[in-house]
Design goal:
This protein has a six-stranded mixed sheet, with helices on both faces. A four-stranded antiparallel sheet has the order 2-1-4-5, with helices on one face. The chain is 37% helix and 26% strand. By secondary structure, it is α/β, with parallel strands linked by helices.
Length: 233
């Protein structure tokens, strides 16, 4: 579904990504692991059109998307849940979810809203609440729900466990697994390597802007370097 080839991205004189290549097949969860500053968020921002590469190619369903505005990439079926959630704090839960469907005019919006509430019943309970007053876990649910309201084919998730208590991390990852089993393709950036590898099919390890390792989730979990650097063993 998604293919990234020889991707270079720079912030001025600072090279953030160097020759990054990865693939995400339809129906997969693929995770990108790496330390802070490795380039994980930069990769997702470039795929979603928020950053422009200096070179390289990104294709979605064999169609190039480099240089296309971010809203047009959403229209092509890519939704991005950014690091830090970036919800609309002064809008209600319902208004945030409605904003996720801002490009849509089809008859399926109500059904997708019901689907989000089925995945995250807490949001249904908080539907009229101002989003900025939600807990951290509820805000993460809202950020994912808002992305799903775009009716994407590919979901980009950037650090969904950030700042959450362990019990909420497990809940969020269980729901990500449910979303995938319903047919959603997911590219997941996550520092909690153990949780990411527990639900992913395949993964890549990004170090200082380059892919250092790739393999199935089982292969990465068994890799001594990965276990030492990311699994605390």
């Amino acid at each position: 579904m998604l293919r990234v080839d020889s991707l270079d991205v720079a912030y001025g004189e600072i090279q953030a990504l160097r020759g990054v290549a990865l693939q995400v097949g339809r129906g997969e969860i693929v995770t990108i692991l790496g330390n802070n500053g490795a380039g994980k968020t930069t990769a997702l921002k470039t795929i979603s059109g928020l950053l422009h590469p200096t070179s390289g190619m990104i294709t979605l369903e064999d169609e190039p998307i480099v240089g296309i505005p971010a809203h047009a990439i959403v229209a092509r079926g890519v939704a991005h849940v950014p690091e830090g959630r970036r919800i609309f704090n002064r809008l209600t839960v319902r208004e945030n979810l409605t904003m996720g469907a801002y490009l849509r005019s089809d008859a399926g919006i109500t059904a997708d809203l019901d689907r989000v509430f089925a995945l995250f019943p807490r949001l249904a309970e908080r539907i009229t609440q101002v989003a900025g007053t939600l807990s951290g876990g509820e805000q993460q649910m809202l950020a994912i729900g808002r992305a799903l309201m775009a009716n994407p084919r590919l979901l980009l998730l950037d650090e969904p466990s950030m700042g959450l208590a362990p019990v909420l991390v497990e809940q969020i990852f269980d729901t990500i697994g449910d979303i995938n089993r319903q047919g959603m393709t997911i590219l997941l950036v996550e520092q909690n390597a153990a949780m990411a590898l527990s639900i992913a099919h395949r993964g890549y390890v990004l170090e200082t802007g380059s892919i250092a390792l790739e393999g199935t989730a089982a292969q990465l979990s068994d890799n001594a370097d990965v276990r030492r650097a990311y699994l605390g063993e």
